[in-house]
Amino acid sequence: MSDTLLEIDNLSVDYETERGDLKALRDISFDVQKGEIVGIVGESGCGKSTLISSILRLTAPNTRFRHGEVRFKGDDILTKTERQMRDLRGSDISIVFQDPMQTHNPVLSIGRQLVDIQHRSNATKAQKLDIAAKMLAAVGIPDPQARLKQYPHEFSGGMRQRIAMALMSEPDLLIADEPTTALDATLEVQIIERLKELQSEMNCAILFISNHLGVIAELCDRVVVMYAGAVVESGDVREIFHDPKHPYTRRLIECDPGHIKTRARILPTIPGEVPDLVNLPDGCIFRDRCEQATERCHQVPALEKLKDGHFAACWLNHPEEATA
Amino acid sequence: MSKPRSELSIILRGVAKDPLGLIGLIIVGTIVVSAIFAAWIVPYDPIGMNIPDRMQGPSWSHWLGTDNLGRDTLSRVIMGGQVALKVALPAVFGAMAIGLTLGMIAGYGPKWLDNLLMLFFDTLRSFPTVMFALAVVALVGPSLQTVVLVVMATSIPTYGRVARTQTLTLRNSEFILAERAMGASMARILGVHMLPNIIGVLGVLAAMDVPTVIALEAGLSFLGLGVKPPTPSWGALLKDGYALIRQTPWLVVGGGLPIILATLGFTFLGESLRDVVDPKLRKNR
């Protein structure tokens, strides 16, 4: 019996666009063990959203799965029927979205939505309402009975995000898609605490997507660093933050505001832009922005195991003669 | 959870707070009530001729006078209201129901089905309503049912297009994605989550559409293509009055005033409803 919950194996996903195929994900491989918290970092457009929608199979109509597998509990998600997917979503795999102001139906009362979410249960409406009130109470919302009658716009952002979490029925895998990006710092702490609680209560694995390195460092066991649709580095959180083996990871850590000790007028940035994913440059995708790029970088470096639980895709980790 | 009664009372209370909404509510209420109880409140038989009393001006016994056959104009106006609503309500609700269904299918379904339905809507819309009505009446003869069907067919595209646009906007919204991510089926997404977001808009559109349909029915009756005489209709009253405008101007008033009042009433009500049905706007009122 394996302890691997989610296994992404060599996944490549394209979007068909008018300019040509946009290679949103290329040869992504990583896994999530049962009960583990894995962080995914990367700037906007690196394929984080495509990855999430691929796991839930909620991709846009112009999405093409080129090759690879997404195995959940050993079964390939990409070959499941829509019916089977529907049974997975919301019960085995749950998701918390980025913007809590947008994730509730604006014209239905919170109570109505909390009852609706229990569509899998056979309880009576009154019982479901009772459960709904308990859900609100459980996430610390006072006077739940009265608040059930209110509409989403009558709740604050932090409350709504907590409600979104309340909606979950014990999943095995919880995907948190930048759940704190739209919230302020104090609420962020609360939500992170709540996620930790959920993780220990339900013993679920969490796939935590964020570009806030501080939060990742605090919450996650392992981290996957993505750049322009590919995994550039992955491994134990401490390993990666203390001894990054890919120049992109290094620059990302340098650019994190929490990391900057001295007062600077200009915050550090990574010069250059993410390459065009329709017309990919050959060689390493980070080459154009990398200060340490050499001739060797015209060849694509493979994601290689450096030591147990630490992978990176960079020629710098190899002695010169290895590629000659 | 949903309590339709309390929801309705919230909406009605909201409309009544708005002065124009209140006026609209009163006018529409009066028309609807008088149409329902028309048979009991008419002072005279609306189609019974009484030649000795023909072409009288307003008096205590005939508030709006009589026509060239001695029929009481007020009774015909009240009965005409019933005819107007018998045409307007089924036509508007029928068009709304069909348009809503087709529009949601077009907005949520595959691209080819969307294209097909849009072609259907555009074809229907390309017929000028009155010309279309003339053609149908010429084919099957004038009757109340014909008017209802013609008006319904020509209004379907309006509702269909609005429902489609709303569905397209909603299907890409985050909360619908969230529902799908929680394992909601297509039926649940469309019925539980999208419908309440669309129905308010369409309801307002329908309230605004009722006067258009009333005017259309009156127009067709005025042209002799609507309901068959002697059934009273506001349009037919206008036509009779138009012919006799020098002898009894009261007939024109009897036909025209209710059309104007109904138009104003339903428009005020519709505008007021638009502000009230949106829970986000409701609180600020």
Describe the structure.
The complex is a heterodimer of chains A (324) and B (285). Chain A is of the alpha/beta class and 324 residues long. Chain A folds into 2 domains: 4-92 and 171-323, P-loop containing nucleotide triphosphate hydrolases (Rossmann fold), CATH 3.40.50.300; 102-170, no CATH class. In chain A, 28% of the residues lie in helices and 24% in strands. Chain A contains 10 helices and 12 strands. In chain A, the strands form 2 sheets. In chain A, strands 6-7-8-3-9-10-12-11 form an 8-stranded mixed beta sheet, with helices on both faces. Chain A has a 4-stranded antiparallel beta sheet with strand order 2-1-4-5, covered by helices on one side. The two termini of chain A are 42 Å apart. Chain B has one domain: MetI-like fold, CATH 1.10.3720. The radius of gyration of chain B is 22 Å and the shape is elongated. By secondary structure, chain B is mostly helical. In chain B, helix 2 packs across helix 11 (250-277), helix 4 (73-108) packs antiparallel against helix 9 and helix 10 (234-243) packs antiparallel against helix 11. Helices cover 75% and strands 0% of the residues of chain B. The interface between A and B is medium-sized, with 36 and 25 residues.
Characterize this entry briefly.
The complex is a heterodimer of chains A (324) and B (285). By secondary structure, chain A is an alpha/beta fold. Chain A contains ten helices and twelve strands.
Features:
heterodimer; A: 324 residues; alpha/beta; Rossmann fold; 2 domains; 8-stranded mixed β-sheet; 4-stranded antiparallel β-sheet; 10 helices; globular; B: 285 residues; mainly alpha; MetI-like fold; 12 helices
SS-based structural class of chain A?
Answer: alpha/beta
Cα-to-Cα separation, first versus last residue of chain B: 24 Å
The CATH topology of chain B: MetI-like fold
Order of helices and strands of chain A: EEEHEEHEHHHHEHEHEEHHEE
Beta fraction of chain B: under 5%
Radius of gyration of chain B equals 22 Å
CATH architecture of chain B: Orthogonal Bundle
Going across the biggest sheet of chain A, name each strand in turn: 6-7-8-3-9-10-12-11
Tell me how many strands of chain A there are: 12
Mean pLDDT of chain B: 82
Uncertain regions of chain A: pLDDT < 50 for 5+ in a row? none
According to DSSP, the number of beta strands of chain B is 0
Number of helices of chain B: 12
